[in-house]
Design goal:
- The protein has strands at residues 2-6, 9-14, 18-20, 23-27, 36-45, 49-58, 61-69, 83-86, 91-93.
- With 94 residues, the chain is an all-beta fold.
- The chain has a single domain, classed as Domain of unknown function (DUF427) (Metal Binding Protein, Guanine Nucleotide Exchange Factor, Chain A), CATH 2.170.150.
- The strands form 2 sheets. The chain has a 6-stranded antiparallel β-sheet, with no helix packed on it.
- The protein starts with a strand and ends with a strand.
C-alpha cells in the first residue's frame, strides 16, 4: 500500500500506483479530495505534457502546488492519465 502524508495526515493511499521518474502516481480516485484545491499553476514536461496542480490544505495549513497531474499526457506517459503525484514535503511511503 502506498500512502501520501502531509501535516501528519494521509491524503492519498492505494494498493495500485504508477512509478515514473522516481515519483509515485496515485489513481485520482484514491486521493482524499477534501484536502485538495485546484491551482492555476501549470508546467510543461517535454515527454509527459502539461501538468496541472493542486494546493494541499490540511487543518488550515496550505502547501501550494504540492500535487500535480497530467490531464492529457503525451503518448509516452499514457499510463499516468488519471493519476496524481506529490512533492514539496509530502511524504510518500510504499
Amino acid at each position: 500500500m502506498a500512502k501520501a502524508i502531509w501535516n501528519d495526515t494521509v491524503i492519498a493511499e492505494s494498493d495500485t500506483y504508477e512509478s515514473v521518474d522516481g515519483n509515485v502516481y496515485f489513481p485520482s480516485d484514491t486521493i482524499k479530495s477534501e484536502y485538495f484545491q485546484p491551482s492555476d499553476h501549470k508546467t510543461t514536461c517535454g515527454w509527459k505534457g502539461v501538468a496541472s496542480y493542486y494546493t494541499v490544505n490540511v487543518d488550515g495549513k496550505e502547501n501550494p502546488n504540492a500535487a500535480w497531474y497530467y490531464a492529457e499526457p503525451k503518448e509516452a506517459a499514457k499510463e499516468i492519465k488519471g493519476h496524481i503525484a506529490f512533492w514539496k514535503g509530502v511524504k510518500v511511503e510504499k
